[in-house]
Amino acid sequence: MKNQERSLRHESRLNQMLSRVRDRHFRLTPQRMAILQILANSEEHPTVEDIYQQVKTRFPTTSLATVYKTIALLKELDEVLELGFPDGSNRYDGNRPYPHPHAICTKCKKIMDPEISSVDELSEEMRQKTGYTISFHRLDFFGLCPECQDKP
Amino acid sequence: MKNQERSLRHESRLNQMLSRVRDRHFRLTPQRMAILQILANSEEHPTVEDIYQQVKTRFPTTSLATVYKTIALLKELDEVLELGFPDGSNRYDGNRPYPHPHAICTKCKKIMDPEISSVDELSEEMRQKTGYTISFHRLDFFGLCPECQDKP
DNA sequence: TCCTTTGCAGATAACGGTTATCAAGAAATA
DNA sequence: TATTTCTTGATAACCGTTATCTGCAAAGGA
What we know:
Two copies of one chain form a homodimer. Chain A is α+β, with helices and mostly antiparallel strands.
């Protein structure tokens, strides 16, 4: 079952996050736990505002600052991937916290994470032609998702 | 001679920009002309502030707003490529105003534009695996440029 | 040539997501 | 229990960009 697989992966991601937080002796407050769960469980690359709204359903007094600070913590631990956009509409990926290509719908903003084979070759080609030592990348492909192609 | 080739390319780019501006019946003010020249002549992917400082050497009363408005005009004409970054350090490419891969030095911020062969294949692979209709992309590779590798 | 219209330049206020600051509270440590 | 350290929540500050407005200058028509 696909949903079972996903559930297992999410649980595994949460455990990974939790052990990293504990290993570095950061405190595991209820607010942090809630934010970690949201990030581990979401496939939708949520915004800070999305996360903030979700946390508030469980902890209504949570501040936006807490969300920002928890995300900063996870970035430091390399447990979340930040997809920053110039217009400020940043998104977060707690499931695959390493650089990978994205397909981004220019209309509904849905983001997909396909497995792509030839990224390493491309990275190597960049290294050869520029002399740069490539350590990470950001690969975004923009267009219309299948749903938005149908309804114009 | 490499410099001659580059000079010719820059001149050709400037002419291209000028005719686009004229075709659409936008006025060619001295400030606009200066900004177009800067963009056509620069290989360094300047920031708005860079452009602003350069224009002011010729027209000291130029306003930042004029730089922003001229860039907005060129974006509308697809005659400049905006490389927006989430931290606000945006850069502009007046020489190659179409999507292409960049190598970006994380230390000195130097940007290179190598010719890469396999971008179309990658785009096609994205299309196949996501169902998105890819219309443009943004491909950034980050690392240390040759100069910054030498001096630690 | 004069006049009207339109567009542009310059100055500055407003905007908005993020970061910094700080007081109050809670958890760890002694 | 006392003390230290960390975290939360609220809000001010930040800063590149955008919006607004006034005055000016070029284009086009009588």
